[in-house]
Amino acid sequence: MFIVLQILDRVQVMRTYQSALPLLTFLLILCALTVPPTSAGAAGNTQTAAPPISSAQNTVQHELFGGFWRIDHSFQARLRLKSSLVADSITVTPVLYMADGTEFVLSETKLSPNGSATIDINNALRHAPSQISGHSSVFGSASLRFQHAWNPIAGVIDSTDAPRSLVFTYPLQEFSNTDFQAQDVEGLWWKHDAGVHSFTVLTNSSANPVTAMYRVTGARGTGTTPEPLTIAPHASVWLELETLIKELPNDEQQVGGLSFRYTAAQGALTVSGGMENAMIDYSATMHFSFDETKSPDFRRLEAEARAGRWSVGAKPGAGTETNVASVGLMAGKPNALEGFPEGLRFIPYAVMRNVSSKPIKVKGALNLMTGSTIDLGIWQFAPGEARQLDLQSALSGAGLGNFDGMLTLSFRHSGAAGELLVASGSVSQNGSYTFEVAASAVGPSGGRDVPFWSVGDGYDTMLTLWNSGTVAEDLVVSLHYGNRNGSYKLPVRLAPNASSTISLLEVMNLQQPDDDGRVLPLDVREGSATIASAKGEGQTINATVSAGVFNAQNGTCAVITCYGCNGFVSWYSVVDPFSLAASGSQQSRDFVTWHDGTNYDRTSGSSWSSTDTTIATVQTAGQANPGMMYGVSPGASPLYVVDTNEPYYVSSICNASCPYANPGGNVHGSIVAVPTNFRQQGAAVSDSDGNLHFNYLWDSSTGKLSDLSSCIVGENVTYPGTGDYYWSSPPYGPAFVHANNPTAISFNATDGAFGDVHSHPDFLTPYRADGFTATQTYRWSCSNFLAGSWQSFQQNTIDRAVTQHSFNSTWYYSITKSGSGAVVDPLP
Amino acid sequence: MKTQLKCFALAILINCSHAFCSETADVSVKYTLESLTTSISEPVIFSIVIKNGTEQPVTAKLGWQGTQSLKFTVRDPDGQEVSFRPPLHEGIGPPDAIFIGPQREFKESLVLSNWARFDLPGTYEVAVAFSGTIESSHGVIPGLQRSARFSLQVLTRDEKQLRKRCEDLAKTIERAKFYGQVSEAAESLTAVRDPIAVPYLQRVAALWHLAAAATGALADIGDGSAVDALLGLRRSSDIEVSTLAVGALRRVERKTNDEKTKKRIRKALDTEFSDAHDTAR
Predict the structure, then answer these.
(1) Beta strands in chain B (DSSP E)
(2) Closest by alpha carbon to A592, among A658, A673, A669, A676?
(3) pLDDT at A310 over 80
(4) DSSP string, A351-412
(5) What's the rounded Cα separation, in Å, for the pair A273 and A168?
(6) Do B95 and A754 touch (CB under 8 A)?
(7) Cβ distance B212 to B194 under 8 Å?
């Protein structure tokens, strides 16, 4: 049975009714003419409530799209997914889409805390049911579906053709399905050699056909005639670009751009692409613009900022200048231990394209591992211009023509992030080994996530960290292994401007215990990594990271283009219970929910202020008790303003322009109302049937039950064993009478009261002794508090027994809870 | 404010169009059926609304769990009659005494289709008798409307209408910002005992801690699609949701006569049917 109990506050409405009778009479007549009588029901819920602190805490459906896969020739495609939640598991449903849009839903994958998993796409397609296999194709796209309050999942597809040393890696991304308007996507292509051909794949991630106009541009921005292309829902279309590139002027055919425009929801079209020359085992991933500010999570935080809950600071680069770096470019001879062929040398490269309508100035520098810097001067890019930069000449010019080692290319450019597309990496002199490095924005962040790494079977993963700050950084690299809920922690100290490269295979082979006594198990083959401050997750770091999974034997290197920027997803302030009296005091707290699900208490570091100090004051950071409120005089409670006094970074996954900072870090909010003061009302009552009755009451921490509109109050009762609890029969009957285990019932917290009945089934002879204990928890949950998780009020044990009297052999039933009891004596 | 006024006007108009209203005092009792026309498989929802139009608080004594003072009689189109009080159930429920402040209203909704069958097309006669009391500081309030009778037209199962209703209810829950917007929609959706409701129950199960109600409804539906949905919920990262789903699957396993479904559940749960269950069976 499901009972709804509502107390509807009519006071405001009734008062209005008295003063607006003529209007109401008119409305009654109007309604009589226009409204069918069956639409009653929920009319009249006129409760008003304090606005919720966050709208983000309810579980919502997420879907990441994109991630082009290919299985032509000898390509092996893998879908890799990773959860950043540190305490909770999460279930993800992967979906493959054939080129014609046919959907193939794969089995759900449960990711343990910090877990990652790999799905073999070739294998999945081999075992596709007949209705799918009839639509099979050699390329397509994928999506990941899951439910959570925010997006904690990173997904990447890598397609590797080991015999031909070709590899392409594409992330899956979440887009807002709103903003139905003209959308622009810009790309960057270049030719390593004359044998390279370029391709792009457009995927329609929406349920409606999308028509895009596209064109290719050359080095100076000269464009081909725009052509239309319509893509069916969830279908993918492969475009070979060579014919179009050949339409460009001869001197613009070495490097250029690709432009798409379509009118649909943002992200309806995802674009992937690459350059390859299978004759020399060369491949590189094409780069496209992406606006992370249109992700649903960012949109949510932005909406909260508009509502006055946040003060979103300027995005780095949103003004006049953007700092970007390509970390870990190989130059010269590779490390002899890495297994590359003798005589191999790497040449660093960088390709850039100005996709804005204004000239862009780029000031570049090459940073050596030790922290010393080579100034590369200033490059000018005209609007639409694309160019390959000659980094090797720059090295030679600095007297480092024979330099062997790792470099970081950092550059500062005018304009906003995303206005300059950048591709960079290192390529061997024969073109068969390419190590791409994803450029990412430079600046402070709350930590970084690397979505996957692989070791063993010829593979190793290189993590390179660069400290862009002016002081030394103490970092911890946590290597999470596979889906096993374990991690190995590696401390790293970086001098200002210095870099460090870590071979994960080497870390594994060393078997050096970390501070927790753990080693990286030798049988682990894959995992993910988190880079955080040694002071703790959530503290600001200035490290920029890159990672590449390479196999020196088959000459493949999968660039990781999907680095997560760790940051906050929500903020709370709570006073429990809110009962501040004149001359009284009360403690309030505020804390931040991190992207990995951790809640950090920021009370002591926050600045607290009151909007009306004649009614109440509050202590702030630097005082003895930050967050302690003091009542001054009776009056309506003021709005407490909390300033966390620290920069917070918005969590983002797979975004190239990480970090997106909130440098002011100001957070404003009103007090959350939560249920409190749960108590039994009166004595328990035992009726003649042996039922035990209780009544309970609770209050709102603000003193107004109507403020609890985001909350529920309920019970969870667990019985012995797992699954439903079946009462023993006899002494109870008939058989099959059961209690759901657990029994979970909830009510609207605005009710302020509920009753509780502890009953029993009928009794059945022949009686026999029986007894069991159920554990009952009274609890509450508010969707705007601690992600809606259950909070306990109190716990009780409920003991029931059928017992035989020793003095006359009759039987009786008894139940006890909280010191009260009921009996049926004797049993019938 | 204009919107609120419209809603209030609607509430009065609609309720009185198919409700029995006692307006003889400042304290009134109204009995309503959510709709006087429904179709097979749709929930039949009864509400009692007590309005305190005075400037003093009153206490409504409705009996244990807020239901024991209500007795219903349902006569089906074939003339078969059944009388019942809502059964007292184990666990929490509305208190027996409801405090209603000045100028406030109390509403309790009950899903009659949980206790009486409305699975024949035709006209049902539904009668309710209220034996509770409403008291103010001056004592028991006299002159309350104590009974009501409704003619409920039940149409044949309308798949399209049922699907639309489920969709509307699921959307209401998904878009709700406050629990007050959820409870009635959840009550209605979880009372639909039809496979059409399955995808909608699955959609809302993880929202607002509705898993207990949703898994219970899925177990009652108990067909292949409901089993699919429960198997999905069993993998929830929320241990309570997954435990509830397992319990619901075992319930389906016990009650179904379909051996294939039984085997499928056993295989999925990868567990042996316990001796205790076998004995009970």
Answers:
(1) 19-21, 27-33, 37-39, 45-52, 58-61, 70-75, 81-84, 91-93, 97-100, 104-111, 122-130, 133-136, 139-140, 147-155
(2) A669
(3) no
(4) EEEE-SSS-EEEEEEEEETTS-EEEEEEEEE-TT-EEEE-HHHHHHHTT-TT--EEEEEEEE
(5) 9
(6) yes
(7) no
Query: Global pTM?
Result: 0.59
Apex A588 CA angle, A595 and A674, nearest 5 = 75
Asked if A12 and B12 come within 8 Å (Cβ–Cβ), the reply is no
Query: Which of residues 161 through 200 in chain A touch B, CB cutoff 8 A?
Result: none
Kind and range of the H or E run holding A97:
strand A90-98
3-state secondary structure of A487: strand
SS3 (DSSP) at A343: coil
User: Tokens for B215?
Assistant: 């898994």
Dihedral sign computed on CA atoms, order A576, A579, A582, A584: negative
Q: State both tokens at A754.
A: 């509920």
Can you say whether residue B81 is alpha, beta or left, with left for phi > 0 and alpha for psi between -120 and 50 degrees? beta
Burial of B225 (0-12, 13-18, 19+ CB in 10 A): middle
Sign, CA torsion A307/A308/A313/A314: positive
Element spanning A757, H or E? strand A753-758
A722 token code pair: 């797992």
3-class state of residue B281 by DSSP: coil
**Percent helix, strand and coil across chain B, each to the nearest 5:** 40, 25, 30
What does the alpha-carbon distance between residue B16 and residue B14 come to, in Å, rounded to a whole number? 5
Measure Cα distances from A437 to A285, A317, A422, A487, B257 in Å. Answer: 10, 21, 10, 25, 60
For residue A128, count CB atoms less than 10 angstroms from its CB and return exposed for 0-12, middle for 13-18, buried for 19 or more. middle
- The most distant pair of C-alpha atoms in chain A lies apart, rounded to whole Å, by 110
Which residues of chain B are within 8 Å of residue A91 when distances are taken between CB atoms? Answer: 235-237
Cα A718 to Cα B76: distance, rounded to the nearest angstrom = 39
CA dihedral A426, A428, A430, A436 (to 10 degrees): -40
A262 phi and psi, to 5 degrees?
A: -145, 160
B274: tokens are 């316990």
ipTM surpassing 0.85: no
Tell me the nearest-neighbour CA distance from B62 into chain A, angstroms: 12
Q: What is the DSSP letter of A671?
A: P
Strand partners, B152: B124
Who has greater pLDDT, A6 or A616? A616
Q: What is the pLDDT of residue B18?
A: 43
Contacts of A497 (CB under 8 A, 6+ apart): A367, A371, A372, A373, A466, A467, A468
What is the per-residue pLDDT across B206-239, written as a single tens digit (0 to 9) for each?
A: 889 999 999 999 999 999 999 999 999 988 878 8
d(CA A435, CA A438): 10
Q: Which of B101, B212, B246 is facing A744, going by the closest CB pair?
A: B212
Among B234, B235, B255, smallest CA distance to B246 is for B234
* Whole-Å CA distances, A566 to A190, A218, A449, A647: 32, 37, 7, 13
Residue A74: closest CA among A281, A339, A341 = A281
Give the CA angle between residues B131, B132, B137 to the nearest 5°.
140
Tell me the mean pLDDT in the region B240-268: 91
Q: Give the phi and the psi of residue B87 in degrees, each rounded to 5.
A: -60, 140
Q: Which residues in chain A are contacts of B32 at CB distance < 8 A? A: 40
Cis previous bond, A94, omega within 30: no
* pLDDT average, residue stretch A445-458: 87
Torsion of CA A220, A224, A228, A230, to 10 degrees: -60
Note the Cα B105 to chain centre separation in Å: 20
Residue A12, token pair as written in the block: 């405001």
Residues of A in contact with B15 (CB under 8 A): 40
Pick the closest to residue A666 from A738, A609, A582, A599 (CA basis).
A609
Report the alpha-carbon distance of residue B247 to residue A269 in Å, rounded: 43
